[in-house]
């Protein structure tokens, strides 16, 4: 029996070398990028290779069943072991890929596998990768000064096409960006002045605050959000089981000194609260004063906003901050650091390896980029990993974007066409996540739009992902209602987003010892995540499973727990953009959360 086995291995190895290469994927270089020079052969790349998942169809079926309130399996989330078994590639796939890599000198110990072995990463010099993928890499420079080593096309041996979904970095020119707009400093913080200014509510008011008493459209605080959305009187009961998390990319972190000051002023009972930073792939956790360049770039303002918003609402629920390293800008050269700016893949590998008793029930992510800058193969592979988390009972909330239907200069497809087209964002466009838009004002709330900095809450339809079945009724009705308006500017059969919204304008944030007011779906996403986390707390305290993947429940019955937004639109691309209407719409989703109603609906399931 040994001889045939050896023969099989030899045949596999020979076929890897002799099988002709065919183009696997071409993705045009997006606007704003210019080819500068050939990439140095010694520059290293951390390749992320996504393999075909053997039984993804079964995983998707299970995901929808455990997330559908009308199904008998509702709430019976899968374990890590269950998920890994479903998505593990076929043995043939693993053998062929390992043999192909071995043909180019890659040793087994150099391979870093995901828990389900559906992704593998390996660090190699450009000259080896060029042979591996039958391509040529170049150095590209973006008009904002960022550099990347990329190639618009890559190939594989013919026999591997059905086994490998994506290889990056190849043609991924996306720049994972925090969805935040202009930071408007109020001034250097004077502790005594702020204390008298923002802690002026008397004890009687704080017993039963009203929106009129504690909310101000000039500065949105945790007290306002807790009062407006109905969480003020709720005391978390399952802090030993419930966990909420946020993502930091682009070397962002959460400054503990700033957060301490924020809590002193806006959530004094939480001053002693400590959260956990998980450092992934050499992510930043800088707690020292920022450099002049970091100050100029607003470093950590995003991270502070996320943490301050979540703690301000969910205290004392445990908070985990995932700081994932690996991002441009950098200047590629011989011997330069490894280019690894595929943070979603890196973070997903880490989080999917977490045990069921450690994985968070809610994750807030305020980052996104234009969908057309993300290769379809990579978007698909990442989206499928989001599905794995949803099947395990994790609610993933992503920002819907800050440019309406498209910011100026980005309302074009990724080629030289001059035809305007609306600009959807990824990962918000993935059907396995919950996308969050932004609102402003109180009683009534309207779609967020700020003329001072161009912030407009984002929304639209995916060009990559078809409309999921859970959206058939609501999204089809809205799309038909638009008639011929915006005809040809969007994909009428695509996954529509956002799914929900929350306040997202003029949030109080402490950064670098100063009080800032921030706009953006970077504010609304952690706010919505915090409220969903409190719903989970109530469920866990009652002995019920957490909500998990929200959308099937949300579109079936959960939408009754949201305040409908009917005024405003996703302004962008020199148009008014998709308008808010009664029911679901492509700028506010189902609206903003009403915690008492959501809790009641969730507990009654």
Short description:
Mean pLDDT is 89; it is low at 1-16, 180-198 and 328-340. Helix content is 31%, strand content 21%. The protein has a domain at 184-325 and 361-604: Peptidase S8/S53 domain (Rossmann fold, 3-Layer(aba) Sandwich).
Task: Tell me what the structure shows.
It catalyses: Release of an N-terminal tripeptide from a polypeptide. One of its GO terms (cellular component) is extracellular region. Pfam families: Peptidase_S8 (PF00082), Pro-kuma_activ (PF09286). This protein has 605 residues and is an alpha+beta fold. It has a domain of 386 residues: 3-Layer(aba) Sandwich (Rossmann fold). Helices cover 31% and strands 21% of the residues. It has 18 helices and 29 strands. Strands 12, 13, 14, 15, 17, 19, 20 and 25 form an 8-stranded mixed beta sheet that branches. Strand 4 and strand 5 form a beta hairpin. Helix 2 packs across helix 14 and helix 13 runs parallel beside helix 14. It starts with a helix and ends with a helix. The relative contact order is 0.14. The N terminus is likely disordered.
